[in-house]
Amino acid sequence: MNVCGENAVNSGAAGKLDGISIVRGHEIEETVTDPGAEDVLGSGTGTTNLGGWYDTVDANENGDKCAWVGEPLGGGVPGEPQVVPIPGAMGDIKGNAGTTFAVQSLWSNEAAAGGGYCAGAGTDLL
């Protein structure tokens, strides 16, 4: 069973912190795509907070559009990876020091030959 992302991508001890790197990366990325979110237009009672970036079609932020892609709805074998190997699913990336981190894919308008899709976690749609 995938408990808070543990072993979502990697098995055994290597996947113990998968959920932490997946969720932290997700939230940092959404912050990066929300420049000016604190800005307010107007004055007095006629103000509008610009808020964060979101897709007007499905009202999701960039990270939310691809959150937990590939995670099966059912259970699984405890301690084993819990991701179905489909395009856009969660995967591993290597950091600058060579350490591996589990990450989710993120929405890219350029993925899928410009059609838009989840990409960047090493499981891109080819």
Question: How does this structure look, described?
Answer:
- 15% of the residues lie in helices and 14% in strands.
- It has two helices and six strands.
- Strands 1-2 form a two-stranded antiparallel sheet.
- A hairpin with a 6-residue loop joins strand 1 and strand 2.
- The protein is elongated, with a radius of gyration of 17 Å.
Biggest beta sheet attributes: 2 strands, antiparallel
Distance between the termini: 30 Å
Helix fraction bin: 10-25%
- In terms of quaternary structure, the protein is single chain
Number of strands: 6
* Strand order in the largest sheet: 1-2
Share of β-strand residues: 5-15%
What is the tally of helical segments?
2
Q: Give average pLDDT, whole number.
A: 83
Structural class: alpha+beta
Write the element-wise H/E pattern from the N-terminal end onward: HEEEEEHE
Show unreliable segments: none
Sum up the overall morphology in one term.
elongated
* Radius of gyration, taken over Cα atoms and rounded to an integer in Å: 17 Å
Task: Give the gist of this structure.
The protein is of the alpha+beta class and 126 residues long. The chain has helices spanning 18-32, 111-114; strands at residues 40-41, 48-49, 91-94, 100-103, 106-108, 117-119. Strand 3 (91-94) and strand 4 form a beta hairpin.
